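Standup notes
- HV: blocked on the assembly model, inputs below
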Amino acid sequence: MSSYVVALDVGGTAMKGGLVSASGEVLLTDRRPTPRVDGPLRVIAAIRTFIDDLAQAGHGTPSGVGLAVPGLVTEDRAVYSANIGWKDVLATDFTSLSVPVRLGHDVRTGGLAERVLGAGRSEPDFLFLPIGTGIAGAMIIEGRPYGGSSGWGGEIGHISVFPDGERCACGQIGCLETYASAASVGRRYGERLSRAASVQRPDTAYSAPGPSAAAYSNPASAPGAYPAPPSAPAAHSASAPPASAEDVVALAMRGDPDASAVWDEALEALSIALASYTLLLDPSSIVIGGGLAEAGAALFDPLAERLEGRLTFRSAPPLRHAALGMNAGMLGAALLGWQAAGIADAGASWALDVLRSPSVP
Amino acid sequence: MSSYVVALDVGGTAMKGGLVSASGEVLLTDRRPTPRVDGPLRVIAAIRTFIDDLAQAGHGTPSGVGLAVPGLVTEDRAVYSANIGWKDVLATDFTSLSVPVRLGHDVRTGGLAERVLGAGRSEPDFLFLPIGTGIAGAMIIEGRPYGGSSGWGGEIGHISVFPDGERCACGQIGCLETYASAASVGRRYGERLSRAASVQRPDTAYSAPGPSAAAYSNPASAPGAYPAPPSAPAAHSASAPPASAEDVVALAMRGDPDASAVWDEALEALSIALASYTLLLDPSSIVIGGGLAEAGAALFDPLAERLEGRLTFRSAPPLRHAALGMNAGMLGAALLGWQAAGIADAGASWALDVLRSPSVP
């Protein structure tokens, strides 16, 4: 086996790991739960074990380790994560191996992967926008992810799109995320049905059309700094499962008025936020990933039309589907691992066919 | 006299020129009207003459020429300006001298000057926001002005702060500029009085408290791509001069209810836009310039408070007053001129005391 790095994408729910060769071959992947409820020390211990186990599967010592983690992060320190609960963890504390380690912010590491290996390969200036449980963006500026003056940049999910709108879980008013994340689309549909039920229209009670309540959610792309929005009050039916965004989109496509109203507001909120981003940052494209991107044409077509309609004196950037799916974070972590190993332009020569790479399970 | 560059800040109304030495001494300044109404060829000819005349005042050939111009611009080409009407003008076409020439976008050139010589000297990541006739920003990212993928970035004046609000002159709805530019503050106050007059409350008719209708306007900071907003219908009094933003702020400070309402909406619009900018770009500070910054504490204090109030999970960046005033564009053009002459870090060693430099008349 050729030389390799260990790559780990640490989300609030799951950790996605892999071994990636110097030529970009994904040698293996694995996935484990993040023991977040057991506290930060347990998470760090689980990461160390996961890295050890992955390295065991490789031949010889890895050339480096790369980790994508949530919260505030520098290359050599996980400064803070409200989601996981850690504070000031050195990169080297995440592994027992004596190899170079580099950290990256979860969403920006996914953006790095899309830039080097994915939908942004030929674009130095774009927005990577994974929409899952939460919404955060990776601004790719002059070829590299940009995190702002202190690392807190990219919080497009919390710009106020409706200043007189709903209160977000973060405490602000009218945040994009509270209208348009996958979790919010499901929650808002449930709330709408509950309101309808409370005014005595039992015929509108919801029954979930799809099997998976977790569909379209993407824990890795959540900003992770805030508690999840409260789930919909189940006043109308104690046994109805919460709607997933996938369900809501499917219902909207079939003309369901409640689902259509919720989806319409999500699209409107997204178009306002993306118009603001476009006017400020002038991206050459907007690369949408995360669970909600799986809605496909039901998302991309009306959103592109609304974005174009909002802009009068400039054109709208094209919306593209992210290329790397749920592997973006792990592949970005692999790039960080190779950068740690001294390969500054890691990935530049990789002829990665992501469809042929083993996916993270 | 030491070696020098010719610097020119070309606005829609006036051109501000200067000679600046290699050590940052402003040797002289001058100002001429921009013959915009006579068409782009006349403007180009006027620029050439202005540069010739400035160079005549120096000893020997200048080391370079720097120009700040509106619209879409690269270092060596004025690609397009709706305001002035030119298209694809080479940098070298702006002068008859055989010296290196470099162009810059007007607002970003002002931002460059604030970064190198002014309020952002120690800050690599901040927003320079001149508020005048229009509103456009210069995003300083990792030490340099950033214009986006195609040069159209920074249009913070046209992000929609009230999606159900007023139509902007640009055609979009609820733009920051249509509520908070100096021109809009004056216009909206006049419109408010007109509406009051039309419902038969003649006691609210406006009489201008200040002498200058042009106060607080700053043509150089206008994006320049759109027509000026229509002036207030003068239904209530054909002879009343339009209110200036300075007038409106003064009236608001004295408790005038109409002026207070207009100023309140301007502050609210600014706080929404700056909260969005902060959440996205995470600047270490926001440097406000242009005519409206002359409102001082009446602008800065309530705006800082509102911005802080809008952000729940992060702190607000401090608001700073721009240091270079109306000279920012000319001083930035001087930096461009020295860059053209081969001094990549022009300005780094200048011990510029802008208060002792001759101001552009």
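- HV (later): unblocked. Chain A has two domains: 4-118+325-340, 126-321. Chain A is about 30% helix and 20% strand.
- Next: hand off to the docking folks.
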